[in-house]
Write the structure tokens for this entry.
Amino acid sequence: MSTFFIEFRDPLFGAILFFVIIFVIAIFSYWFNRYKKREDYKHLDRFLKQFNTPVSKEELYVLITKGELSEKTWLLLAHSFIKNGDYEKAIEIYSELLKVGNKDNYRDTLFLLGKTYLKAGFLVRSKTIFLEILQNNPRTPQALNYLLLVYEHMRDYSAAIEILEPLEELQIETKIQRAYLDAKIILSSTEFSVEQKVEKLLEIYKKDNQLTYMIFEYIFRVNPKAAWVNLDVSKSGLLLDILWGCDKKDLNLDIIMSSGYLRELYSAKWYIESEKSSSIFEFDVLINLNKSVNATLSFEYLCDCCKQVSPFAFHRCSSCHAIDSLRVEFSLAKSYYGDFSEENNSFQ
């Protein structure tokens, strides 16, 4: 026993014992923290799991009314579901918040529910909600704009035009909205012939100098001759994909030869041989490529307002709902049409 106390009083033994104690405490702290983290993750997994499995309205009601999460957190959660395209869960959350949430936020939550119904394609439900908002708060431009979108999706363009009047009373510019809806009515009409549609669309175009892509996309398809005659060549870049897709037999060479941009474009397409180079990189590469090389232009479509990119052309942006905001972006790509033609020739 006396030997032990002698060793304990030894400075070297004391230092070793001190470091052993520190080491034991460190090991204990490390494993305790790992245990706590594991338990936290399990709690988080259990919480998230209830949203990855079907939740009944009764269960959702209980979760919301328990108050473990604030109303703002539920709204953020619903927004994340919308971002992921899970509209059904977002709709359930909004619907339950309308029942038990803060009444001061009722109109805002109702508006979010109407927007989600629109995104999910439940147009009648969305229409009913926006009409309810406007019944109690008629001077709500956001609800008016979304009700107009609902009518547009329902192809009830006359009802959509009626929405423009209260928007104008609220000092909101509606000129392009009116021109757009007028063009939609003309394009969807069964009463007008193709020639009448072309004439009426050109009237809208000449009056407002807007909706270039929407109008000329249709006219180039049904009457290329009228399209070329009425085309403002300074806007050729807005219609690049349409002009690129024109058949050679439908070209107006007089107009093309009067425009440097069009000469370069159709030299790159190899329809004419007037240009040997271009200041536009993609055109220049195609002009100087051997015709046997299967190369072409590929297109994507950018909204000038929100910068959202789409692989398909649009007249109204699906993200920010801006009209006539399309910009054509292009790049070099392999021409699969050339490969297909070669395969067809090999079978002959």
About this structure: The longest helix spans residues 11-52.
